[in-house]
Each structure stands twice: as structure tokens, then as C-alpha cells.
Specification:
alpha+beta; Ribosomal Protein S5, domain 2; Four Helix Bundle (Hemerythrin (Met), subunit A); 3 domains; nine-stranded mixed sheet; six-stranded mixed sheet; elongated
């Protein structure tokens, strides 16, 4: 027998866990029911992991082979116990699993809470699960007693959520024969969670379709009653499943409390057979922009859980939640070997194609619903334009844009090409980080005057996919801030209001002088055909990098030296004509004008002047001269 006289070992929680526990213990949340779903999900995962381990080590099942989760109520003592007969934990497993934050989603959740300025933090736990630690929303003490499958030793983990926990060995008779028992000593205001009606309602609503049967004991010595049968939802026919069933399962598998925006459920047959049940969330998951960009698709083989880290979908579809159950993958392969299996490759290709085709179907049948999906996940889907050459055409068809012609509604590239102007040879776009600023940038004035639609691209990924030679229906993508505008073949829509150049010789002289004066900081100074109302703007050289991409790379320290931009001057602008005439032979005055025009272009581009003090002095000299 295990020596139970050994003193418990006391440990401090990892710093992130301490913050999370403090937040739970000292805050009030809108929906505490989430804790039960989280504990049931953990228990179901433990049962599924046991089934996988038993493939190579069948002896660990002993005589208790049927997986189950048992919830025991003890209202007299304000106690709720949840027990599974899954894989179980050793004392070392407890310290590693229950003392640290292992999933980036939980860490991302904490970062969101910490950054919350609008007071909505109290709503978030009710919408998103935070794993085992959610138990401290309803309990002032939590005990975990566990025995690893195949082991004679058992251990108890205990904590009051105040910053430390203890681990100690327990006698085998005090522990489950195999698996884990979680005992919650409920807070006074949470005693309803030891009542049969409350628990049964929550389990059926939130965990009704976990693939492990759940039993309920209304009191410790009562007879167990099955409240869910553990039937795998994905094995049923679609006609036998209600929308509520799908929503309940989605919340269980995704760890969220919203509704699925799109449900994809089908069975593939042929050379490779597998079932798929996946969901596109209604709202953004917390870990959407996790640097690891990992997906959250579970892989089963003949209903045996294998892993939730199989790369079933490409990273640009990481917001999709759900599972794939294969009938063909061998159960005796390691997780690493499965990842390299040609069968899995076929599944990956099939599931990715189906998700994209279902998104296209939604875009054609319900533009409003698809618009909401694109609002949430468009920036992620566009990563595929850069990464997935094979499916680029399908992704371009799915892409939606705000444009100079449509700031309120999404436009597709099909819409854009249908309205393209005669003699227009490219799809024009402007990249930045603010949609409103893009819509008013000087570089698009000439395009707007000619009725040429410009795509407005405010996401960081837009700076990358647009630079790799993408085209749509034979039309290349071209930045309005790069190279010559080449608008001479498309006349302005209303030539009567177009500004006309005055004082051509003096303007030419100003341009020539500015080019000479600014040669160290610009590659060229030229008359612009893209400006109509602004005096100046900056663009990238024809062979240079788009200016927004250049800024992104420079801010990341990945650009040793930026290319010199081109300064374009609007010869028809009244201010330019006056400045050209004001430069009456004084080289100092002309130099001030040249530098001020460059700084004005920088400011219009959202940048500060290169030398703010010199800018102020030049402006002061010019104003003094103008005022006599």
C-alpha cells in the first residue's frame, strides 16, 4: 500500500495561473455554468486518450473497459463530484497539468481580459471556457484524486485557489480504480450546482453530445441514472440532428458559447472514407492570431480519439472548429507517423476543398451571412492567397473588399471586373492600416476622378499577397502608390471641373530644382496625373517595393535601407502655381519650397516630417515672406 503518512508537498502556481485564479475568485461573472462543460470536456478527453493508449496496451483497461463520466451530487455538504474512468494522472502529471497554463487559448483569454477597457471582462468567461480553472468560479476548494491507468499509485491535488496547491499520495482505496475524481466544495452562492435539476439541465444543454456516456447520482448512495448516451453525433444522419443539437456539440468541441455561423457535416466515401463535422464560429476565437497559428480540429480513427493537433486544415482555416473521424487510418501508428500518412494527406485535401466550397456556396446563397463571416475571418483567409498557390483562385473568389465605390458593402472581384473601365488594364488597390485614411489618400484622386474603382486593403497581410504576381481573370493587381499611374488612356469622368496647369514654365523649373535639391531623399520629382485636389503625394518607384510593405518590414527590423520614394506634384493645383511664382530666383526660397512640399506629402501619407524643427523654420520663413 502507498504510505499516506508522507507530508503533502506545497507548490506555487505558475504566475499566469495565479493571475487567472485571482481574477476568478475576486470577480463576478455573468454565466458560471461554463465550469461544468469544461470539466466534462476534460473527462471525455481522458476517456478518449485511454482508448488510444489501450490499442497498444490493452491490459490497462482491466475489467472496466466501457468509458463513462459520473457526476455525484451532495447538496447537504455543498459538494459536487465528477469522476471519469479515463487515462488518469500521476502526481507528476498533476503538477504539470494543473499548475501551469498549457494552452495558448487560455493565455490569450487572459491577455484579452487584461487589455479590456470597456468593462466587458465580466461577460467573457460566460462566453469562453478557460479549462479546469473555471472550477474556482463556484468552489472555495477543489480536490483532484487520480490514478494513472496501469498504476497502483494514486495522488491527491488540492487547492483553495489562493496561489498554492498541494500534492500528496493517497491510499489506493481512496482513489478511483482508474481515472480522475474532481471534488468541488461549492461556495454558498453556488450551492444550486449540487441540485439534480440544475446539473441535469446544464449537462444536456452544453455537453449532451460528448462521445462518452454521462451518469448522474442524485446523492452519494443513490443509483446512477444515464443522462446522455455518449453517441457520437457525427455518426448520425443529418436528418436526425436538430440545429440545437449541432449548436450544443459546437459549443462543446469549440469551447465557445456563440452559435455556429456555418455547419459542415458529411461523410466521404470512395478510396478514403471519413466523417467530418466542422463549424465556422459566429465570433472570433481568442487564439485567432496566435503566433503558432495552430488549428483546432480533432482527429479520430473509428471513433477513437487520436489527437487535436493533427494538421487537417491549412493555417489560414485555423478558425474552423470540429473533428474528422477516419475509417482507414491504422490505429497502431504513432501520432507522428499518422501526420505523414498519405491517407491523411488525402483527407486534408478533401476537407480543405469542402470547407472552401461550402464557404463559396454560402457567399452565393446568403451574402449577408457570408459578409459577417468575412468580417471576422477575412484577414485570416487572405493568408491563403500568399501561402496556398493551389487554391488561390478559389480564395480570390471568396475574397471581399471595401472599395472607393462601396465603403458600406463588401464587393467581390467578380463585381469589380464586371464594372471595369474601358482601357483599364489592372485591378488597382491601396494598402494601409486604416480604412478611412485609405479612402481619402491623395494617390487615389485621379482614379476616383476617372470612375476607376480602387480596392482598399487595411490588413497587414494585404501588403504581402498583393506583391507575389497575383492576377484575376487576366488582370494583374497594381498598387496606386507604386510607379506611374498610367491613366492617360482613361479620361476623367467630368473634364469640366478638372484643374488646369497655369504657369507651365515656372512649374517645370520648380520641379527641376526640387529634383536636384531633394536628390538625396527622393528618386524622382515629376508632374502627376493621379492627383486632382491634393498638391503633392509620395509613391514608390516602378521597380520598388510598395510603400506600406516597406513600412511594415522596416518596423520589424527586416529592411536595412528603404528605397527613395518619388515625389509627384499636381501641376494644376493653385498652390503649386503660386509657389512656383514665389520662387523668384532665390535658391534658398526654392529650397524651402521643395522641402516643404516633400514634408507635406509625408504628412498626407501619415508620416511626420523628416526633421520637424527644420520643417517649422521653413514654414515660418515662407509665412513671413507671404505676409510681407
Amino acid at each position: 500500500m502507498t504510505d499516506t503518512a508522507v507530508a503533502p508537498e506545497t507548490h506555487a502556481f505558475e504566475a499566469d495561473v495565479s493571475k487567472l485564479l485571482h481574477m476568478m475568485v475576486h470577480s463576478v461573472y455573468s454565466d458560471k455554468d461554463v465550469f461544468l462543460r469544461e470539466l466534462i470536456s476534460n473527462a471525455a478527453d481522458a476517456c478518449e486518450k485511454l482508448r488510444y493508449e489501450a490499442i497498444s496496451h490493452p491490459e490497462i483497461l482491466s475489467e472496466d473497459s466501457a468509458p463513462r463520466i459520473t457526476i455525484t451530487l451532495d447538496p447537504d455538504n455543498r459538494r459536487l463530484t465528477l469522476e471519469d474512468n479515463g487515462i488518469g494522472m500521476t502526481a507528476a502529471d498533476m503538477g504539470e497539468t494543473l499548475g501551469t497554463i498549457a494552452r495558448s487559448g487560455t493565455k490569450a483569454f487572459m491577455d484579452r481580459i487584461a487589455a479590456d477597457k470597456g468593462g466587458e471582462g465580466s461577460q467573457l468567461i460566460g462566453q469562453f471556457g478557460v479549462g479546469f480553472y473555471s472550477a474556482f468560479m463556484v468552489a472555495d476548494r477543489v480536490e483532484v484524486i487520480s490514478r494513472r491507468a496501469g498504476s497502483d499509485e494514486a495522488a491527491r491535488w488540492s487547492s483553495d485557489g489562493q496561489g498554492t496547491y498541494t500534492i500528496e499520495p493517497v491510499a489506493p482505496e481512496e482513489a478511483p480504480q482508474r481515472g480522475t475524481r474532481v471534488v468541488l466544495h461549492l461556495l454558498e452562492d453556488a450551492k444550486s450546482y449540487a441540485e439534480q435539476f440544475t446539473v441535469e439541465r446544464i449537462v444536456k444543454a452544453q455537453s449532451g453530445h460528448v462521445p462518452v456516456p454521462i451518469f448522474l447520482l442524485e446523492k452519494p448512495d443513490a443509483e446512477a441514472k444515464e443522462i446522455t448516451d455518449g453517441a457520437a453525433l457525427w455518426t448520425k444522419s443529418r436528418s436526425d440532428i436538430s440545429e440545437e443539437d449541432y449548436a450544443d456539440f459546437y459549443r462543446s468541441v469549440a469551447g465557445q458559447f456563440d452559435q455556429p455561423a456555418l455547419t459542415i457535416h458529411y461523410r466521404a466515401e470512395g478510396r478514403t472514407e471519413y466523417s467530418v463535422l466542422t463549424f465556422i464560429p459566429e465570433s472570433k476565437p481568442f487564439d485567432l492570431f496566435d503566433p503558432d497559428r495552430k488549428g483546432r480540429i480533432k482527429l479520430y480513427v473509428r471513433r477513437v480519439f487520436i489527437t487535436d493537433e493533427a494538421e487537417i486544415l491549412p493555417r489560414y482555416l485555423r478558425f474552423v472548429r470540429g473533428l474528422v473521424d477516419s475509417a482507414d487510418l491504422p490505429l497502431n501508428m504513432s501520432r507522428e507517423m499518422i501526420q505523414d500518412s498519405p491517407i491523411l494527406s488525402a483527407i486534408q485535401k478533401g476537407v480543405t476543398g469542402r470547407v472552401l466550397s461550402e464557404l463559396e456556396k454560402l457567399s452565393n446563397n446568403d451574402a449577408e451571412a457570408y459578409g459577417k463571416v468575412w468580417d471576422n475571418f477575412g484577414a485570416v483567409l487572405k493568408e491563403g492567397l500568399y501561402e496556398d498557390f493551389e487554391r488561390r483562385e478559389a480564395l480570390l473568389n471568396l475574397a471581399r473588399f471595401k472599395t472607393t465605390s462601396s465603403m458600406e458593402n463588401w464587393r467581390s472581384l467578380k463585381d469589380y471586373v464586371a464594372d471595369i473601365k474601358e482601357n483599364q488594364t489592372a485591378i488597382y488597390y491601396a494598402v494601409g492600416n486604416d480604412l478611412a485614411r485609405l479612402a481619402t489618400s491623395p494617390q487615389i484622386e485621379g482614379f476616383r476622378a476617372r470612375g476607376i474603382e480602387v480596392l482598399l486593403l487595411p490588413d497587414q497581410v494585404d501588403s504581402f499577397w498583393t506583391t507575389i504576381g497575383v492576377d484575376y481573370e487576366g488582370k494583374p493587381f497594381k498598387s496606386v502608390t507604386q510607379g506611374a499611374a498610367d491613366l492617360s488612356l482613361i479620361p476623367p469622368a467630368d473634364t469640366g471641373d478638372a484643374p488646369k496647369a497655369e504657369g507651365g514654365e515656372t512649374i517645370d523649373a520648380l520641379v527641376a530644382f526640387a529634383k536636384q535639391t531633394l536628390e538625396d531623399v527622393v528618386s524622382d520629382v515629376r508632374i502627376s496625373d493621379r492627383l486632382t485636389t491634393s498638391a503633392v503625394c509620395l509613391v514608390a518607384p516602378e521597380s520598388g517595393m510598395d510603400r506600406q510593405l516597406e513600412k511594415l518590414l522596416a518596423s520589424a527590423g527586416q529592411l536595412p535601407a528603404a528605397a527613395k520614394p518619388v515625389l509627384e506634384i499636381n501641376a494644376g493645383h493653385g498652390l503649386i502655381a503660386k509657389l512656383a511664382n514665389a520662387a523668384d530666383g532665390s535658391d534658398d526660397m526654392k529650397a524651402d519650397i521643395a522641402h516643404l512640399l516633400l514634408d507635406e506629402a509625408r504628412i498626407a501619407d501619415g508620416e511626420p516630417p523628416a526633421d520637424p524643427r527644420a520643417f517649422a523654420e521653413r514654414l515660418e520663413r515662407l509665412m513671413t515672406r507671404a505676409l510681407g
